[in-house]
Structures are given as structure tokens and as C-alpha cells.
Amino acid sequence: MKAVIKTMHSADLNVILGKDFEEYEPIEKDFFGFDFSIEVGPLNERGQEIFNFLVASPKFLTERYYHQKGKKAVFGRHIIIMFEYDFNELYTLVNEYIKKLDEPNWDILATKIGRIGRWEFEDYQE
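^ Immunity protein 8, sequence as received from the core. Prediction below:
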């Protein structure tokens, strides 16, 4: 089974700034941070599930965690670190990771995608 990105969204960019990914340009190319969500589903099938990331530059992470909170170490799960903002580079990074996956079922596939982005059903138990 293969997966495909069906939609992308950022509340920070779309709602707060009123921008789409393609038109967003940070004031400083190397200082930015925003939420990023993708909906991914099985290729040629209906349905999708959400995976969330923080997209941030090293300068943003330093400001947020070291200067503002005094942290000298933090965990970095589900963070995409970009040294300079480039939408095409961001899309390619995530899309290439997802495209190379091929698993026998959706649960295994989604778990592997969940290694890079927080899966909406991570830790879900019935």
C-alpha cells in the first residue's frame, strides 16, 4: 500500500497571516516557525488522516526555547528544521519521504509517517 498527500494546511499561515504556503515569505529567510498539517491517505483510495509538524528555523528554535524559556536542551519530535524557508523544499522533503513508503496495510504505513509528523491517532486505544 502506498500513501499520498491529499491536503496541506497551516493555521498560523492561513488564519493568522492570511497567506498560503506558496505566497508566504518570512521577514527574515532564516527566522520563522509555524504549525504545518498534512492530510495523507492511501493512494487511489478515499480517506485521509492528519499528521502535524512544527516547521522552524534554528534561529526560531533558539529564540523560543533558549532566549525566552532558558532551556539548554529540548526534545525535537515532529519538527522540520529548515535553515532557510522554501516552500518547494518543504513539500519535496515530506512528499519524498511519504512516496518511498510501501507497506501491507494502512496502520503500518500511518505509523511510519507518524515517525516524522504527529499522527492524529498516535497512542489511540479502543
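The chain has one domain: 3-119.
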